[in-house]
């Protein structure tokens, strides 16, 4: 269904569906229901095509039944109708490098890292930045990855320089920082 490579996938737990985000600047919603002997080719259920660049992240927020996707700007949209609900202010964020979602909190949130080495926290219901997190001391390089603990209490941040930071999301304070050193084999 895509005309270019797929960059990200996200399974929708309760809907028996998954989403695929592609270099062709679209996100497609697919059914995971099995049909026949496995040789059946399925068409996508809906397509979201409002991005302007290659997508690198897609997620589903169960509590509000919305999707979030990112191509350096963040879109929050209805995956069952393919319609945009919010586009996060890219002037406020700058180009987003990494996006993660969390819905364990009563408010579904997006954590977005841009070139300024801060993590911007976005309320998915309104599409607005609610606060910024300082996730490092000094200059450990750009943010390359984010991971949120299952309970939603901690955020791990991977930096391009090999540093890993851990932020307490309840207080917004940096808990730990480590420098990862590579060890040779042999």
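-> sequence recovered:
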């Amino acid at each position: 269904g895509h005309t270019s490579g797929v960059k990200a996938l996200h399974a929708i737990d309760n809907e028996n569906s998954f989403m695929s985000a592609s270099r062709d600047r679209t996100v497609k919603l697919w059914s995971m229901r099995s049909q026949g002997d496995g040789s059946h080719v399925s068409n996508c259920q809906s397509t979201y095509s409002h991005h302007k660049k290659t997508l690198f992240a897609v997620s589903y927020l169960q509590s509000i039944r919305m999707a979030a996707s990112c191509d350096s700007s963040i879109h929050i949209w209805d995956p069952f109708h393919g319609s945009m609900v919010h586009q996060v202010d890219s002037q406020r964020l700058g180009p987003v490098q990494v996006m993660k979602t969390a819905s364990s909190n009563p408010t579904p949130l997006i954590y977005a890292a841009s070139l300024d080495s801060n993590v911007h926290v976005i309320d998915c219901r309104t599409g607005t930045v609610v606060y910024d997190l300082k996730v490092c001391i000094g200059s450990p390089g750009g943010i390359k990855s984010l991971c949120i603990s299952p309970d939603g209490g901690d955020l791990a941040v991977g930096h391009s320089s090999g540093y890993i930071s851990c932020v307490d999301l309840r207080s917004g304070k940096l808990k730990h920082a480590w420098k990862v050193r590579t060890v040779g084999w042999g």
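The chain is about 0% helix and 50% strand.
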